[in-house]
Design goal:
Layout (H helix, E strand, L loop, with lengths): L7 E7 L3 H12 L7 E6 L6 H6 L4 E5 L5 H11 L4 E4 L10 H10 L6 E9 L5 H20 L9 E3 L1 H7 L11 H11 L3 E12 L11 H14 L5 H42 L1
Parallel strand pairs: 1-2, 1-4, 2-3, 5-7
Antiparallel strand pairs: 4-6, 5-6
Length: 277
Amino acid sequence: MNTSRLRVSIVIPAYNEERHLWACLEAIAAQTQPVHEVILVDNNSTDQTREIAASFPFVKVIREARQGIVHARNAGFDAATGDIIGRIDADIVLPTDWVAHIQAYYTDARHTQTAWSGGAQFYNVRLPRLVSFAYGLFAFGLNRVLVGHYALWGSNMAFTPAQWQAVRAHVCHRTDIHEDLDLAMHLSDQGYVIRYERTVKASAELRRVYSDRHTLWKYLEWWPRTLKTHNKRTWPICWLLGVFLLYHATAILVGIDKCMRLLKRQASTALETRQIL
């Protein structure tokens, strides 16, 4: 079977993403296999998000007035017309063979019963390999222990329209839980398998650790709340391992970054002083 016949729709929920969106869409334009469609769901942006998206001919812009990524995501899933629905975020830079990989994966009929998620690599951190490994350990490895299956990562995932229809009426609409983990849990409840391929990595910005750190604790609280919403008895363990430890681990990461910046400034100052002397 020619894998290029599988039409891949990519859904991108977006709220004020003008800083990242151009690079995201350029990476989609550079795919080795053309995407069937990109559906950008504008969730009440006040910047140039819509205009940037509209400048790419393969992008369809729709609007979702209800604020919240889960509402924007659902609107995009409902609007998708492809054989496969991919989902990424607006700060993601996909590898050039991402669409081809998704097409090849779902060519195997056995995979129509699986929802797929890839891994992450972060482009705005020091020690990116170590950070990406740690992220995978928490986001995928720990979730597999806590809930009994892998999570889906909303920045790098794919599934079939039939799977979406199977859970559409059941997914939670709360905006204070992790909607991608919620989706994975509902799919698992319907008998689908969650597949994680850590080697297929999308480049992402690690936002809340640096520029939006004031929102990190609240964001991490969504994790055990998602488990509790699904009556998972492991949610208290998630508080200790997934929230407390992870929050303090990111504090160490920020500290390393500050030290590296300070050392760089000191080295630069010393060099300037020697040049003057």
